[in-house]
Write a sequence for this structure.
């Protein structure tokens, strides 16, 4: 089994992935050994990855963070995707005690009131469940793309996640949205109907709105905040470290 535990080794994998198509990238990382986990938000990018995993029967665990605040359309898509590709998508939910503690401190919808409260909500509903989803994993696959936001413009194909001690792989890093849509159309991939209603990036229902013409793909996420690089923390090392310390 190959375990990637250094930046140099991750860079070597990054270079190998650059010359492969999506199926080749997923096949390569799934063959490195250990537990490989793909976390999906059921967005259009993630559906493309899930389709390739299911179609090629790759030994990759598929997991989703069922936050308790997802759109009904997203929840329905989980089962539709499982049925189409004959796979099991593992659901990871927040702990009731964590939700209760958050509500006692901030109020159930306190995330609208401050960035601190919003980060705390994402920590409870996303980061802590993610930590459980990645327990024992050596490789974490995501649907990050460079075109999603300025904050993600330098996304590599593979990088060493020092906080979680694993290889993080972004096999769609160089795909643009048009390529994603073309793949979906050509392969009959099921997608969230909200994409057709102006939601290119879909998270929790209270924190996501449709975007306006000309806005970046992720402008509808946490729209009330002014920081253009805003993230939930799943892909920010400092946030991961903070959760690990709890």
């Amino acid at each position: 089994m190959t375990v990637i535990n250094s930046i140099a080794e991750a860079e070597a994998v990054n270079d190998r992935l650059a010359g492969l198509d999506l199926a080749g990238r997923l096949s390569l990382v799934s063959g490195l050994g250990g537990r490989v986990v793909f976390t999906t938000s059921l967005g259009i990018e993630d559906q493309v990855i899930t389709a390739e995993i299911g179609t090629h029967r790759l030994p990759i665990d598929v997991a989703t963070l069922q936050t308790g605040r997802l759109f009904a359309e997203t929840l329905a898509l989980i089962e539709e995707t499982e049925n189409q590709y004959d796979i099991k998508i593992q659901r990871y939910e927040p702990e009731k005690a964590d939700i209760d503690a958050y509500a006692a401190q901030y109020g159930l919808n306190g995330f609208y009131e401050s960035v601190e409260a919003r980060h705390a909500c994402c920590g409870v509903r996303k980061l802590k469940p993610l930590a459980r989803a990645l327990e024992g994993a050596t490789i974490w696959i995501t649907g990050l793309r460079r075109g999603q936001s300025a904050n993600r413009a330098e996304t590599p194909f593979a990088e060493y996640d020092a906080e979680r001690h694993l290889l993080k792989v972004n096999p769609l890093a160089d795909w643009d949205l048009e390529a994603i849509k073309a793949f979906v159309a050509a392969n009959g991939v099921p997608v969230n109907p909200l994409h057709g209603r102006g939601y290119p990036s879909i998270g929790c229902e209270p924190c996501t709105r449709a975007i306006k013409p000309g806005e970046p793909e992720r402008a509808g996420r946490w729209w009330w905040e002014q920081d253009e690089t805003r993230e939930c923390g799943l892909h920010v090392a400092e946030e991961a470290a903070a959760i690990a310390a709890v």
About this structure: Residues 238-246 have pLDDT under 50 and may be disordered.
